[in-house]
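Friendly challenge for the regulars: who can give me the structure tokens for this chain first? No prize, just bragging rights.
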Amino acid sequence: MLSQLKELYSLLTAEQRKKLLRLQFLVVLMSLAEIAGVVSIGPFMAWVSARAKISKLDKDYSNG
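First reply, four minutes later:
Bragging rights claimed.
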């Protein structure tokens, strides 16, 4: 499979190769942004949960 990719790459012009490399860079950048978005869900949910617990404790303390 790698040999086929090399063969396809050799068929590209210099301008097409530059565009392909830029496109690959953007794909990697986009995937890293996607990973960061997914990873950030955990800490956000922990923060929301902690805020809800604090709010509930505050209401319980105020009432009693």
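The mean pLDDT is 88. Residues 2-63 form one domain. Your move, everyone else.
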